[in-house]
């Protein structure tokens, strides 16, 4: 018999004030820009200041989001830490490469190099919470977080671990922003975030953030939802969305009729949001349609925020108006499906269910 997997705690650092788990999007920040920086908590509350000074923003976000998740789950013993990231600690990478050029490859400071690897966040979290177990980082572009989620799910189902910390983390950097603007992946003109669905231009608004989750095969008082499964597709044509969706739901003994809401990764790119329009055309009339990237921007592990959103919705049964594209006709949100893709590639489906 397949073991159940529960989301027992979560922590989020994003372009909204999500670091406070006492409420969920009660005060939404609206932006008019092309890049949305994360709203940081007081890092002194989570990281020793002498250590924080030497950390890049992405590392601080990751450690803090992880600690918030652990506190939210009542500080369980963690058997493994699995992270996903698209660009890793890119700020330190840029610092090190810049110093190579500026100093003619001599007298280099090693710190940026040591902290520039993609697994820096996972390693720093392990040191901080004294976890000596399995520690792995996935770098699979916009499927990075889902790869980490799938790994954790398999380990829990096979009893290789009892409680796992899983997260997605990506940070903004000046150089990467310039490159994405140059190739039109970021919009050329400032866009009002609350009007993103009406965008008629190419490119997205970009962001950064860290979202961590405590997964376990044991339910507890802090449990948010049950994770039924996740599926990834590197490439997927629009005309095949229907059969892939039906097959994914069928694998979990569900149909389109069972979906109470879907959480979609609309990012305002007129060229690729059509995937979501095709997807929504398949849904039943009672199924709610929700979106979130107008709140946090686009980045490789932005889909982790979708899991955070769906988990909050299932536990608290309250849907903030700012994320509703079409209101659900169901009185209770029991089954929620997440669908994300980036520029027509790296498609992912994740399914959550209430614990009742």
UniProtKB/TrEMBL annotation:
It holds the Pfam family ketoacyl-synt. InterPro entries: Beta-ketoacyl_synthase, Ketoacyl_synth_N, Thiolase-like. Residues 47-219 form the Beta-ketoacyl synthase-like N-terminal domain. Keywords: Transferase. One of its GO terms (biological process) is fatty acid biosynthetic process. The keyword Secreted does not apply. GO terms for molecular function: 3-oxoacyl-[acyl-carrier-protein] synthase activity. This is Beta-ketoacyl synthase. The lineage of its organism: Bacteria, Pseudomonadati, Bacteroidota, Flavobacteriia, Flavobacteriales.
């Amino acid at each position: 018999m397949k073991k159940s997997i529960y989301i027992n705690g979560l922590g989020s650092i994003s372009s909204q004030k999500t670091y406070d788990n006492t409420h969920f999007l009660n005060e939404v920040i609206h932006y008019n820009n092309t890049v949305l920086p994360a709203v940081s908590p007081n890092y002194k509350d989570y990281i020793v200041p002498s250590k924080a000074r030497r950390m890049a923003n992405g590392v601080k976000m990751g450690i803090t989001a992880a600690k918030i998740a652990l506190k939210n789950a009542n500080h369980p013993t963690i058997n493994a830490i699995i992270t996903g990231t698209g660009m890793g600690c890119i700020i330190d990478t840029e610092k090190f490469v810049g110093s190579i050029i500026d100093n003619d490859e001599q007298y280099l400071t090693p710190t940026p190099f040591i902290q520039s690897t993609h697994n820096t966040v996972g390693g720093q979290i392990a040191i901080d919470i004294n976890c000596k177990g399995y520690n792995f980082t996935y770098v699979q572009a916009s499927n990075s977080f889902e790869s980490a989620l799938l790994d954790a799910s398999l380990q829990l189902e096979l009893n290789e671990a009892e409680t796992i910390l899983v997260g997605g983390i990506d940070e903004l950097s000046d150089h990467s922003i310039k490159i994405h603007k140059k190739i039109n992946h970021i919009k050329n003109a400032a866009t009002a975030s609350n009007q993103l669905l009406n965008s008629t231009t190419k490119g997205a608004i970009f962001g950064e953030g860290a979202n961590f989750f405590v997964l376990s095969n044991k339910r507890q008082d802090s449990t948010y939802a049950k994770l039924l499964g996740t599926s990834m597709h590197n490439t997927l044509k629009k005309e095949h969305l229907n059969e892939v969706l039906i097959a994914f739901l069928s694998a979990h003994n569900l149909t389109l009729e069972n979906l109470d809401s879907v959480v979609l990764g609309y990012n305002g790119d007129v060229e690729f949001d059509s995937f979501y329009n095709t997807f929504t055309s398949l849904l039943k009339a009672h199924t709610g349609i929700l979106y979130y990237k107008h709140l946090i921007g686009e980045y490789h592990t932005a889909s982790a925020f979708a899991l955070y959103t769906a988990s909050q919705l299932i536990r608290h049964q309250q849907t903030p108006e700012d994320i509703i594209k079409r209101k659900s006709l169901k009185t209770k949100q029991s089954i929620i499906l997440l669908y994300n893709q980036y520029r027509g590639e790296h498609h992912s489906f994740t399914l959550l269910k209430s614990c009742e």
